[in-house]
Amino acid sequence: MRTLINNQITIEHYIDKSDLPDDGNIYNAVSQIPHFISEVGEFLQADTRWKQSECKDVNLLKGAAMEELIDVFIMSINLMISYGMSEDMIVAAYNHKLGVLEKRHKIPKGELEVML
């Protein structure tokens, strides 16, 4: 997780000449949201299996769809960093959510592996 966060901080520095996590300027955090939504839209355009009238061969879609899905993942990390989430906060929130999902879906304890 630390490597993912550090890489995104470096990438954002070169793209926007901004330093994440920022100085508390909410604009920097909020400005990440349209980028995130745009990447979700690009993913949906790349993988049109959800449109029954345009269902295509899965193998043809994997490359573009996977690339766009990684962009969604990257933008998710950017959003977390922009909103001031540290690595410890991200891991704690993820582990907490695993507990919620365990209870909600009656998953036996120990089936899900927590992040350290």
Tell me the count of domains: 2
> What does the average pLDDT come to?
83
Shape: flat
Helical region count?
Answer: 5
Q: What distance separates the N and C termini?
A: 10 Å
Specify the helix fraction band.
55-70%
Give the strand tally: 0
* Unreliable spans: none
Q: Which value, in Å, is the CA radius of gyration? A: 17 Å
Oligomer: single chain
Notes on the protein architecture:
The protein has 116 residues and is mainly α. It has two domains: 2-85; 87-116. Helix content is 67%, strand content 0%. The protein is built from five helices and no strands. Helix 1 packs across helix 4 (58-82) and helix 3 (32-46) runs antiparallel to helix 4. The longest helix is centred in the middle third of the chain and has 25 residues, at 58-82. It is flat.
Short key terms for the protein model shown above:
116 residues, mainly alpha, 2 domains, 5 helices, 67% helix, 0% strand, flat
In short:
The protein has 116 residues and is an all-alpha fold. 67% of the residues lie in helices and 0% in strands. It folds into 2 domains: 2-85; 87-116.
What is the strand and helix layout of this fold?
Blueprint: H1 2-16, H2 26-30, H3 32-46, H4 58-82, H5 87-104
Helix pairs in contact: 1-4, 3-4
